[in-house]
Structures are given as structure tokens and as C-alpha cells.
Design goal:
There is one protein chain. The chain is of the alpha+beta class. It has 5 domains: 65 residues, no CATH class; 128 residues, Beta-Lactamase, CATH 3.30.450.40; 110 residues, GAF domain (Beta-Lactamase, 2-Layer Sandwich), CATH 3.30.450.40; 158 residues, Alpha-Beta Plaits; 90 residues, no CATH class. The chain has 23 helices and 16 strands. It has a 6-stranded antiparallel β-sheet with strand order 3-2-1-6-5-4, with helices on both faces. The longest helix is centred in the middle third of the chain and has 63 residues. The radius of gyration is 52 Å and the shape is elongated.
């Protein structure tokens, strides 16, 4: 007897149900009944019983499957609850959705503030595009699921003409090889947080049961997602508040330290501490190099590495100091240079310079201001130097007015810091003061005069400087260049050498003024010169009309060569210019061979330089030749010869 016969003998169809027999076993039971020759009514009853048993078996199998699926759903909800961060939670949701629906892939998108959705997690994806896709608001299946707050699906996405399309989702479907697609909203009572996609790579008609399971999973997950996002936002806010508290505590601590440091510097200054102590304290507190300059722009004290300062950096610092003092405000450059004016009661006392560190916040600025206040207290003790500067200005003004050499005291006592020994070479430099530039020019002049050991005074809309120097030209050009850089525009300057002690100062001043007026009339920007450098124009401007000096400057090397070698280069030049610059005609006039004239002119080029035949130099030489003939004729008592045309 077979097992089926035994089972049938024991319990019949009930035994098959208990054993969860397959449909084939029920069919075998019915077949055996028919083959056994059972009456027709028995066969019919058996067929009815088998049909009912199969229905009961299907119902039991469905209940088992739903029990398993319900267990999966419960496990998924428990798994969601264990996640503390949004990223792991979304990845768990994608994995659980794929497992619960037995699908090929699952994707989770979250809505942003603009209403669009971006893929935040996936499971079963095969392309990198899935992680980068962003679905626009209100478009495609995701837009439909969000708008209707209900699931939408298709058995074959690419062939289904009734599905709402979007280019972005189309691209992901093609890249992932997807056919069937189910979109379920992650919804709460108030809003839709995103969309859960379940995908099959073969055509598949999603059953209502599959849609229900995916919807139930999405609804449970939406609540956890909302809670997790709220917790993450709370944690971020708490971290921000904690960080803000830490920063505020650090700022309060830093401000207290800055205030204590500033109070110490001011108390030290009031107690008579030296400037070096102040500068050292400020430099250590600000972590940079600090320099204190007085009203004459001289360095009073410094701390820090200042040995690698280039010429460009030094010029930048000088410009910042000048701007800070003239405009009475702090100047902070991108290069890390800061300059603060040192003032007391409106009186300019110098500047405090920080180099090598940018001012980062108000605390640094307050600390630097504390240091400037302490520096002002130090500088007040040097008011005597300011009085000496004013006496020096009055002394120069008196000299320009023709005061006796014994007055004023600043000139009579060369041992004083601003005293002058006019027995040594000096230069007068004059610069015209333009409208609105008086303050900056005066401050720069005071610093320059103090640095070079000279004097300055503003007189008749001109800045007048009396400076030590052997050569008036270089001194004048230096003044024009440095003042031009400080003002940010070209500057004209006229200069003249002082001769004859204090009595020569007014004459040099007048000559420098006339030279400046000549430069203005001649035009050009940023030019500086002396009357001597202007050639015959300068000779006409000069008070002493130094014809001999002009001749020496123009023809000196040629005259000396003729005197030493008994040659006649001077005569050759005169003949050359007289015939319009032709060596051939000059040779005929001199009755020599043309090659002789050419060699003599080559010698002239060696003596006067290769540019002597250019227009300006040629005019100077011709004028010098004419003046020499006139002077020689007057000394010999003969009438002056007529000037040859050239």
C-alpha cells in the first residue's frame, strides 16, 4: 500500500491538509477513486471534497505568506527604530523594500525645499547615475505620487503610453535596465517627505498585495524619517549652539585678556615705562612686528623681525603711516600692514605700525587702539621735541625773510637736533602746494626734514625745504619722487644750492621758485631740476647769471682738450655749425681735408657724448660758442663779432 493509500485510510483529505500536500497528491487521490470503480455519487463527492480541500490549502498558504510578510514588515519597523542617523535609515528602507516585495532594486528619494526629489539611498542599483539623479518638482511618476499622495505603477515603463514621463527618470530607467516601476509616497499627516521606488528589470504587473505591502512599509518609514530628520536637525542646532557658546566664551576670554593687556600698557605708560616695553607687549599680544614712530616719522621703538623688509614693503608702510596720520584713522592693508595714528587732544604725535599679521576681529583692533593710546601717553612727554620743530620752522621762515645769521636760536646753535651749520653745503627745494594737499604735504615734509636733518616751512602756497646736500639736482629729484609716492601723483620741484652762508638762503629760495615756475611753463609731469640743469634757461633764471659755469658745463671737456693739446676743436665746432652741420663745407672754411674734420668731430663725440648733435644739446653748444666769443671779445676790448647763422 502506498503512502497516499495509508494517509487516505487514516484521515483522508484531512490528512493531506495537515501534511500540506501538493495539488498533485490531491489529483492522485481523485484519480485512484475513479480507477477503483467507485459509484458516481462517491466520485462526485470526492471531486467536491478535493476542490474544497484545495481552496482551504490555498487559503492556508496565503495566510502563511501574509504571516511571513507581516513578520518582515514588523522586523523592518523594528530595524527602522534602531537607526539613529538619516543615511543608514534610508539605506535600510531601500533594502527592506526590495526584500519585502521580492524586487530587483529599490530607490529612496527625498524632497527638497524646491519640491524636487533627489535619490538619497538605493539597493540593487547597477549604475552610478542612480546616486546622482534629481527629479524635478511635479514631473513624472514621482510628481504624480507626491501630488496624489498615493502609489502609482507601471508594468513596462518604456512601453506604457499612459505613464507620466520625465527626462530625468527616463535616463535612470534606461541606465538601470528597468521595466516595471512602482512609486510610493513617503507620506505623513502633514506632507510628503519623498518617494520610494520599487523596480523590476523584467515586465511585471504589480499585484494589489505588493502595492499594499510597499505602501505600508513606506508609511511606517515616513514617520521614522520625519522623526530622524527632526532629531538630526536638533542635534545640528545643539552642536551649533554649543559651538557658538564655546566661541562666545573664547571671545569673552580674549576680550578680557585684551582689556587687561591694554590696561597694563596704559598703566605702564602712566607710571613712566619706556616705549620699548610698550612695543614689546603689543607685539607679543598681537603676534606680529610692531613699530612706534614719532611725529617726525622716526622709529622710537620696535619689536619683531623687520630685517626682510623690501623697498616695496617699506614704501607701502610709509604710505599707510602717512594716510593714517593725515586722515586720523586706522589703515589696514591686505598685505598684513596696519597703521594707527597716535594722537592726544588733536595733536599728531606719530603712528603705531603692525606688520606681518592681519587684524582679524574687533578684539585685535581694540588691542591695537589700546597700544596707540598708551603710545600717545609716552609721546606727550616729548612735547619739547615738537616745540623744537616749531622753532625750526620759524627759523627757516626768518632766514627766507633775510634775518641776521645770529637769529633765530635754531640756526645759532647747530648742536641742537634741528640746528643747521650753513657752513656745510645745503639745498633749497620748493614744491607748489595744490588745493586739498596742504595737510599731507606738511606732515610728509616734517617727517622728511626730521629724517634728513633739515628744516621745512610753508610759505606763499609753496613747501620750502632746506636740506643738507652737496648736489642740488639729486636732492631735488629725491624730494619730488618721495613726495609723489606719498601723494599718489606726480610732483614738480625746483632746487638751488645755497652759497654764502645764511645770506645765500633767500637767493637760493628765489632761484628755486623761478626754476619751479620755468618747469611749470615748460610742461611735463613729475619733473624736478635745478637752474643749472636747465642749461641756458637756467642761466637766465639764475640770480648770479653764471656764464662761466654754463660754459664749463657745456664746452668744458672740449676747451680743456684744446688747452692741453693745442688743438682747435672749438673752432671746428664753430665752423661746423656755421655751415649748417656739413663736414665738407666746414673743411673748406677751415682749409683742411674733410677727413680731418670728421676725426675732430669724432673726438668731440668722445668728449661731449654721442648725443651732442641732437636738437637740445646742439642748441646749448651753439649758444655756449656764441657766449664765449662775445665774452672773449669784451675782455679784449673789441666789439663782439656778429653771430654766424646756424
Amino acid at each position: 500500500m502506498s503512502q497516499l493509500d495509508a494517509s487516505r485510510g487514516e484521515s483522508g483529505l484531512l490528512g493531506l491538509l495537515v501534511m500540506k500536500a501538493s495539488p498533485a497528491e490531491y489529483e492522485e487521490l481523485l484519480l485512484r477513486t475513479r480507477l477503483a470503480g467507485a459509484p458516481a455519487d462517491v466520485v462526485r463527492k470526492t471531486e467536491t471534497s478535493v476542490e474544497m480541500a484545495l481552496q482551504i490549502d490555498n487559503r492556508l498558504r496565503l495566510l502563511d505568506r501574509r504571516r511571513v510578510e507581516l513578520g518582515e514588515l514588523v522586523d523592518a519597523v523594528e530595524d527602522f527604530g534602531e537607526q539613529q542617523a538619516l543615511g543608514p535609515l534610508l539605506r535600510t528602507l531601500a533594502r527592506r523594500a526590495r526584500r519585502l516585495t521580492h524586487s530587483d532594486a529599490a530607490y529612496v528619494t527625498l524632497c527638497d525645499e524646491q519640491g524636487g526629489a533627489a535619490v538619497a539611498a538605493s539597493d540593487g542599483a547597477i549604475s552610478a547615475l542612480a546616486a546622482e539623479i534629481r527629479l524635478p518638482a511635479g514631473r513624472g511618476m514621482a510628481g504624480d505620487a507626491v501630488a496624489h499622495r498615493a502609489a502609482v505603477w507601471t508594468a513596462d515603463y518604456l512601453r506604457d503610453t499612459g505613464v507620466t514621463r520625465s527626462e530625468e527618470l527616463d535616463g535612470m530607467v534606461v541606465a538601470e535596465g528597468i521595466s516595471a516601476l512602482l512609486a510610493v509616497p513617503l507620506r505623513t499627516a502633514e506632507r510628503v517627505l519623498g518617494v520610494l521606488f520599487v523596480a523590476e528589470r523584467a515586465a511585471h504587473d504589480f499585484t494589489p498585495d505588493e502595492v499594499a505591502r510597499a505602501t505600508a512599509l513606506a508609511d511606517h518609514a515616513a514617520t521614522v524619517v520625519e522623526r530622524t530628520r527632526a532629531l538630526e536637525e536638533t542635534r545640528i542646532r545643539l552642536a551649533f549652539v554649543a559651538g557658538l557658546q564655546d566661541r562666545l566664551r573664547a571671545e569673552i576670554r580674549t576680550e578680557r585678556e585684551a582689556a587687561d593687556c591694554g590696561r597694563q600698557m596704559i598703566e605702564s605708560a602712566l607710571a613712566g615705562g619706556d616705549a620699548q616695553e610698550l612695543v614689546t607687549t603689543a607685539a607679543k599680544a598681537l603676534a606680529g612686528a610692531v613699530v612706534l614712530r614719532d611725529g617726525d616719522d622716526a622709529v622710537v621703538a620696535q619689536y619683531g623681525d623687520l630685517t626682510d623688509v623690501s623697498a616695496e614693503e617699506a614704501e607701502e608702510v610709509a604710505g599707510a603711516v602717512l594716510e593714517a596720520r593725515t586722515e586720523n584713522r586706522g589703515v589696514h592693508l591686505p598685505s598684513g600692514v596696519s597703521a594707527l595714528p597716535v594722537r592726544a587732544g588733536g595733536e599728531d604725535l606719530g603712528a603705531l605700525v603692525l606688520r606681518g599679521r592681519r587684524i582679524r576681529d574687533d578684539v585685535d583692533l581694540r588691542l591695537l587702539r589700546h597700544a596707540a593710546s598708551a603710545a600717545a601717553i609716552h609721546a606727550l612727554s616729548a612735547r619739547g621735541a615738537g616745540r623744537t620743530r616749531r622753532v625750526g620752522d620759524e627759523a627757516l621762515d626768518a632766514l627766507l625773510s633775510g634775518a641776521p645769521c645770529g637769529e633765530p636760536p635754531a640756526v645759532r646753535q647747530p648742536a641742537t637736533p634741528l640746528g643747521l651749520d650753513l657752513a656745510r653745503p645745503h639745498v633749497v627745494v620748493v614744491v607748489r602746494i595744490e588745493t586739498g594737499q596742504r595737510g599731507r604735504i606738511t606732515m610728509w615734509a616734517a617727517a622728511h626734514a626730521a629724517r634728513t636733518g633739515g628744516m621745512k616751512v610753508v610759505r606763499d602756497s609753496h613747501l620750502v625745504l632746506l636740506l643738507p646736500g652737496d648736489e642740488p639736482g639729486p636732492v631735488t629729484r629725491t624730494v619730488a619722487a618721495e613726495l609723489g609716492r606719498a601723494l599718489g601723483r606726480p610732483v614738480k620741484a625746483g632746487g638751488a644750492a645755497v652759497s654764502g652762508g645764511s645770506d645765500g638762503v633767500p637767493r637760493a629760495h628765489q632761484e628755486a621758485v623761478r626754476c619751479l615756475e620755468a618747469l611749470t611753463a615748460l610742461g611735463g609731469e613729475g619733473v624736478a631740476a635745478t637752474a643749472r640743469e636747465l642749461g641756458f634757461v637756467g642761466m637766465l633764471l639764475g640770480d648770479n647769471r653764471d656764464v662761466g659755469g654754463f660754459l664749463d658745463a657745456t664746452l668744458g671737456p672740449v676747451l680743456a682738450y684744446d688747452a692741453e693739446r693745442s688743438t682747435d676743436l672749438e673752432g671746428t665746432l664753430a665752423a661746423y655749425f656755421a655751415v649748417g652741420g656739413s663736414p665738407t663745407y666746414a673743411a673748406e672754411a677751415l682749409q683742411v681735408h674733410p677727413n680731418t674734420v670728421v676725426r675732430r668731430l669724432e673726438r668731440v663725440s668722445q668728449l661731449l657724448g654721442p648725443d651732442w648733435q641732437k636738437a637740445g644739446a646742439s642748441l646749448q653748444i651753439q649758444l655756449a660758442l656764441q657766449l664765449r666769443r662775445v665774452r672773449d671779445s669784451l675782455e679784449a676790448g673789441d666789439p663782439a663779432p656778429a653771430a654766424a647763422a646756424s
